[in-house]
Amino acid sequence: MSEHFEDKIKIYGQDAIEPMEKAGKLAARVLDFITPYVKVGVSTGELDKMMHEYIIDNGATPAPLNYRGYPKATCISINHVICHGIPDFNRFLKATDMLNIDVTVVLDGWYGDTSRMFYADEKKAPVKAKKLTEITYECLYRGIDMVKSGNTFGDIGYAIQNYAESQGCSVVRDFVGHGIGRNFHEAPNVFHYGKKGQGKELKEGMIFTIEPMINLGGYEAKILDDGWTAVTRDKSLSAQAEHTLMVVKDGCKIFTESEKGFTKPPYN
Ligand code: MF3
Ligand code: CO
Ligand code: CO
């Protein structure tokens, strides 16, 4: 019995590790691949097109495309866009832009989901953009540090929220991490805020994402008329970073690490 449910959350067996690693590594390689093209003057539509082709060429498919009507292969979220930014052939990167690129691939029926931050021009990125990016990655890794069996989902949320707020930032409430594996989104919702000891207990074999969205201003979000693009209500900058991981003996296994060491900007 390699797969079963506990508290409605799927418990995957050891046999999930190899295919999840393949899917996760491919998603990370898509971001590695696109990194040198993220420059002033390129359009987000062009970046998406290149990633789409790379995904197909590697025998996988982009999970977002046609997911609940989503029109593109990836999400590219610039500046005050929190998440689900739709790539656009008419939106060209400017020197001061900061952006998140979120890639989810399906490989042999298994999902790998990861995102990273980028600057259009490392030298011209605003100080506050760099500060927010650093804080967001620290949030992600403090969350990941809580992942071991016996801890709870509340411990993850608390670690993220406590750090973000200690730095004067806020945690987006309207979007969450999620169980993943042989589906894009499975139970549970993984909140990036919470209280120590609350929520369900982490158990070996659970697979989920942690993907905190951190704002320089307030946490309130709204969706634009395109039905997807989520922005900060106060127009403050927002950053995000995401990994897919599994609870294993003595901790967790991250499936979406870069083989090039492209963890966070700068990437050179
Ligand atoms: N990759 C996103 C996540 O981390 C989901 C994108 S759904 C889409 O969960 F439809 F907007 F692509
Ligand atoms: Co995700
Ligand atoms: Co994602």
In words, what does this structure look like?
There is one protein chain. With 268 residues, the chain is α+β, with helices and mostly antiparallel strands. Helices cover 24% and strands 26% of the residues. It has 4 helices and 17 strands. The chain has helices at 17-34, 44-57, 127-145, 153-166; strands at 4-6, 9-11, 61-62, 75-78, 81-83, 98-107, 110-119, 170-171, 177-179, 186-190, 207-210, 213-215, 221-223, 230-232, 238-240, 243-248, 251-254. The strands form 6 sheets. Strands 3, 4, 6 and 7 form a 4-stranded antiparallel β-sheet that branches. A 3-stranded antiparallel β-sheet has the order 5-14-13, with no helix packed on it. Helix 1 (17-34) runs antiparallel to helix 2 (44-57). It is globular and about 50 Å long. The mean pLDDT is 98. The structure holds 2-amino-4-trifluoromethylsulfanyl-butyric acid and cobalt (II) ion (CO) (2 copies).
Strand-helix topology:
Blueprint: E1 4-6, E2 9-11, H1 17-34, H2 44-57, E3 61-62, E4 75-78, E5 81-83, E6 98-107, E7 110-119, H3 127-145, H4 153-166, E8 170-171, E9 177-179, E10 186-190, E11 207-210, E12 213-215, E13 221-223, E14 230-232, E15 238-240, E16 243-248, E17 251-254
Antiparallel strand pairs: 1-2, 3-6, 4-6, 5-14, 6-7, 8-12, 9-10, 11-16, 12-15, 13-14, 16-17
This protein binds 2-amino-4-trifluoromethylsulfanyl-butyric acid and cobalt (II) ion (2 copies).
